[in-house]
Write a structure and sequence with these properties.
The complex is a heterodimer of chains A (405) and B (193).
Chain A lengths: L1 E7 L6 H8 L2 H4 L2 E7 L3 H9 L5 E5 H9 L8 E6 L5 E6 H4 L6 H6 L1 H14 L5 E4 L5 H12 L9 E4 L5 H6 L5 E5 L2 H7 L3 E6 H4 L6 E6 H6 L1 H19 L4 H9 L8 H9 L1 E2 L8 E2 L16 H13 L7 H10 L2 H8 L21 E3 L6 E3 L15 H9 L5
Parallel strand pairs in A: 1-2, 1-3, 6-7, 6-8
Antiparallel strand pairs in A: 3-10, 4-10, 5-8, 5-9, 11-12, 13-14
Chain B lengths: L1 E5 L3 H13 L4 E5 L5 H8 L3 E5 L5 H10 L6 E4 L6 H10 L1 E6 L4 H49 L3 H15 L3 H14 L5
Parallel strand pairs in B: 1-2, 1-3
Antiparallel strand pairs in B: 3-5, 4-5
Helix pairs in contact in B: 1-5, 4-5, 5-6, 5-7, 6-7
The chains are: A alpha/beta (405), B alpha/beta (193).
Chain lengths: 405, 193
């Protein structure tokens, strides 16, 4: 048995790692998986960078930020496997949500209208709204900024963004320290269940196939451990297939419920797994298609174009310098080559390309694949813009041209 | 040199603070990581911030260091990123340090060294405390089992203890395990202790 330690945070999207351990997928591959629970992303990052664990459940933009040395000592990371697609929700405290469209279903269905309603609600609020984000380098923060910008709201000027670990968001909302937060599940559902807030936007409605958590390794370690990686990734892919199967959702929720994992009641974990989201306390659940994907549509494949989209947003929000070297290093964090090598012969469909135009598909589309048949789901951004990874500069110019309301 | 300790375990912060004072540092402030602790830290403008590695507020503090004007830019955590041994020791001890720019490495290293030693000492203290608690709980269990034997078998206390001990020896089990089994059995049989 090869021992591998992986740091994770208590979130529904740590499911694949937990299933890999608890359902024996790792063991069958000869891997003794040790899962190390941490509360903050900084700790997960440090444990990985300084070699206390071999891998970490990580925010995709954080893996890129660490590699580029943004706000920290640079350390080359490699992400050969995405742990999930989508899974975030924006929850606002009930008093703030009351200033938006009264119908929570309409809010969720039309993010552009919701963003404008939000912009209007800021004016009604007595002070700048404070919104909790889990990390400055998180997909949640990037999506929130993008969504707000559509309605002319400048996240650095018109609202206060406060960084808090996901598991403390609900307490901070109860204490009135934040007016809302965007975080991975189950925390949005917890806020709703406790009657503190309402879910007003879902990540899957902002970008239909948004990149979310990756499994990150140190680049030098992953090169030296090819044989282990080639056993680990197929085991994780099998775990991901198990997690996607609706027949297993109840069991998966029970696994996640354990105190050593997410430690919240299964009833709060089920909405994200099933896409049956309760948006407002006491109301019936609403079906949110593709709320969270674990494996289907090659969800685990690290599209280099998605790493570049993250890079484009880091540049857009003045967090990274626009230069060719940064662009190349950011794209290189997503190791589609290692994914291909490790999962070759697994029978899973393998995308033919490593980049695609993000946001171009409005309906499920069959795409070129090396093995099996691969259909990709709709991947549009809520504003209809497409991201061409060959032309990051042109894309950024287009975004800058969004009229400020 | 102003040192801030961000910690919500009062005991751990005290252990660390005492050590720093003994080492000759006297401008030390303990800040619990709740509510507006970030604003408090900004007003305090410390040279060094020490915090428990497992603290959920680390992300909040790092964000503050990344954007704060009051504190200038941080060098980074763990002082000198090239010193792997020290970083390893700090992580093992559970301490993380943030140093505000402009402070020379030579002045910070002794603080971090000391913090690592004190955090380790705290961990040992905690382990000793847990052990003492377990020992106390064990003794209570054995006392309850003795009481059952004294009542049901009409034994005096030394005889009850001898019976427990010889049973444990014969079965190759710990006395406390035998005592627990006896308490369980007695309650199943409806015995009042």
């Amino acid at each position: 048995m090869t021992p591998i330690s992986i740091a994770f945070l208590p979130l529904t999207d740590s499911a694949v790692l937990i299933a890999a351990r608890e359902k024996g997928f790792a063991e069958e591959a000869g891997i003794a998986l040790d899962l190390v629970r941490t509360t903050s992303w900084a700790t997960a990052r440090d444990r990985l960078v300084y070699g206390q664990v071999q891998a970490a459940h990580m925010l995709a933009p954080l893996a890129i930020a660490v590699t580029l040395g943004l706000s920290q000592h640079p350390a080359a990371l490699a992400a050969p496997f995405k742990l999930n697609v989508n899974g975030n929700a924006l929850a606002m405290a009930s008093d703030f949500a009351a200033a938006l469209d009264p119908d929570p279903v309409r809010r969720l269905a039309d993010p552009i209208a919701a963003a404008h309603d939000f912009a209007g609600a800021i004016g009604l609020h007595r002070r700048k709204p404070v919104i909790g984000i889990v990390h400055r380098f998180s997909c949640h923060a990037l999506m929130l900024r993008y969504w707000l910008a559509t309605a002319g709201v400048d996240a650095d000027r018109d609202v206060t963004l406060r960084v808090l670990p996901p598991s403390l968001m609900v307490e901070a909302m109860r204490a009135g320290e934040i007016d809302g937060f965007i975080a991975g599940e189950p925390w949005g559902s917890v806020a709703v269940a406790e009657g503190l807030g309402e879910i007003v936007a879902a990540g899957s409605r902002i970008w239909q196939r948004g990149v979310e958590k990756v499994l990150a390794f140190r680049a030098d370690w992953i090169e030296a451990q090819a044989e282990t990686i080639d056993r680990l990734l197929p085991a994780l892919a099998r775990a991901a297939i198990w997690c996607d199967d609706p027949a297993n959702h109840a069991e998966l929720a029970e696994l996640l419920e354990r105190p050593g994992y997410v430690g919240r009641p299964a009833a709060e974990l089920m909405p994200a797994l099933t896409g049956q989201m309760v948006l407002r306390h006491g109301e019936p659940p609403v079906t949110v298609p593709d709320f969270m994907l674990f494996q289907r549509e090659a969800a685990n494949f690290p599209w280099r174009s998605q790493a570049l989209w993250i890079y484009s947003q880091l540049v857009r929000w003045n967090m990274a310098e626009a230069d060719e070297d940064n662009e190349r290093r950011a794209a290189d964090v997503f190791r589609s080559d290692i994914y291909r090598r490790a999962l070759a012969g697994s029978g899973l469909p393998m995308p033919g390309a490593s980049m695609k135009v993000e946001g171009a598909l409005s309906t499920p589309t069959a795409v070129g694949a090396h093995e099996g048949a691969l259909t990709l789901g709709p991947d549009r951004f809520f504003d209809g813009r497409a991201f061409d990874p060959q032309d990051v500069t042109g894309y950024l110019k287009g975004l800058a041209a969004i009229p400020p309301d | 040199m102003r040192i801030a300790i961000v910690d919500d375990s009062g005991l751990r912060a005290t252990v660390l603070e005492d050590g720093l004072r003994e080492a000759g540092y006297d401008d030390i402030h303990v800040v619990p990581p709740h509510g507006a602790f970030v604003a408090k830290l900004e007003r305090m403008a410390p040279d060094v911030v020490l915090m428990d590695l497992g603290s959920p507020s680390r992300d909040t503090l790092e964000e503050m260091l990344a954007v704060s004007r009051a504190l200038a830019r941080p060098i980074a955590m763990f002082v000198d990123q090239s010193d792997d041994t020290m970083i390893g020791a700090a992580i093992d001890a559970g301490v993380s340090a943030y140093v505000v720019d402009g402070l020379r490495k030579e002045r910070v290293k002794p603080i971090l060294d000391l913090a690592i030693r004190r955090f380790n000492a705290f961990a040992k203290m905690q382990a000793d405390l847990d052990e003492a608690r377990t020992a106390l709980a064990d003794r209570k269990t054995i006392d309850r089992a003795k009481a059952i034997l004294m009542k049901t078998r009409g034994l005096d206390e030394p005889a009850a203890y001898t019976l427990l001990r010889s049973t444990a020896m014969n079965q190759g089990r710990r006395i406390v395990d035998v005592a627990e089994a006896l308490i369980t059995a007695s309650s199943l049989l409806g015995g009042s202790e």
